[in-house]
Amino acid sequence: MDARPGLLVTGASGRMGQMLLRLAADSPVFRLVGALERPGHPWVGRDAGEAMGGAALGLPVTDDAVEAFARAQAVVDFTAPEATVGFAALAAQARAVHVIGTTGLGPAHLARIAAAARHAVIVRSGNMSLGVNLLMRLTERVAAALDAAFDIEIVEAHHRGKVDAPSGTALMLGEAAARGRGVALGAVADRGRDGITGPRGEGRIGFSSIRGGDIVGEHDVVFAGPGERIVLRHIATDRAIFARGALAAARWGLDRPPGEYDMGDVLGL
To answer: Which of 41, 119, 159, 162 is catalytic?
Structure first.
């Protein structure tokens, strides 16, 4: 009998869902027990491997979330905010580790996720890569070291199909910069500029978003001061870095008490 913990992938047909299915199918840590899609999706009922255009995995894609969660000890979820909060409740009932890479979550979504974390382990991050989480720590430290004469601008670029802006990672970097300065991001953020906007206010943290082609993910944190500029940059060229990070988070969560964690916890940062 296979004693490895069972892993469920939600949003199986998405870019991250397919990457996770491929990695999980070969994982020495987990056994893949579920591939979940929304009711009515054309993949439902098909073998997950064949639906991706590869060899059969012996695992049909399902739209029965309750049954799928009942078989899983860990769930990896890169879907949409409303779907994610529903999955958080199911993971709490199943006492399964819930790794959330979904972006675009608002205060109401986060409140429901926090409630679910009272009963299960939730690891939530707008970006699962090691490099980005190191960039966050660097951003916080540089922001703390420089005064308000240095304007902070976060520039992010993603593929043309991304539906939210700024990216979840850009917002995480903005939060890190705000923490470094001892302010709330909501009080100093500039998230869109158009027309005659007037001069930039001192101490503001700006966001600029680029969408095009198949860009995996690029993030620059620019500290622009009088006569000099510091740029911290992370470039992702392969979506597998996020999938590998998510699986590492799922494994880490198996041994933790209920609560809400992030990749800083997973990586010991």
So the answer is: 162
Q: Is 1 part of any domain?
A: no
Residue in 44, 264, 13 with CA at minimum distance from that of residue 140: 264
Instruction: Tell me how many domains the chain contains.
Output: 2
8-state DSSP, 38: -
Q: Would you state the structure tokens that stand for residue 22, as one six-digit string? A: 């491929």
Mean pLDDT of 201-220: 96
Residue 177 domain boundaries: 130-236
**Is the same domain home to 114 and 216?**
no
Q: 191 with 203, same domain? A: yes
The CATH number given to whatever domain includes residue 118 is 3.40.50.720
User: Hey, CA dihedral for 235, 264, 123, 33, is it positive or negative?
Assistant: positive
| Residue of 98, 158, 219, 234 marked active site | 158
Is the model's pLDDT at 269 over the cut of 90? Answer: no
Pair (183, 215) in one structural domain:
yes
Per the annotation, the verdict on 162 as an active-site residue is yes
Query: In the annotation, is 158 catalytic?
Result: yes
Do both 104 and 180 map to the same domain?
no
Residues written for the chain: 269
pLDDT score of 2: 87
Element (H, E) at 29: none
What pLDDT, in 10s, does the model give residues 115-142?
Answer: 999 999 999 998 899 899 999 999 999 9
Query: Which residues have a Cβ under 8 Å from the Cβ of 182 and sit 6 or more positions away?
Result: none
3-class DSSP state of 248: helix
Same domain, 146 and 201: yes
The answer, yes or no, to whether residue 40 has pLDDT greater than 80, is: yes
The DSSP letter of residue 203 is: T
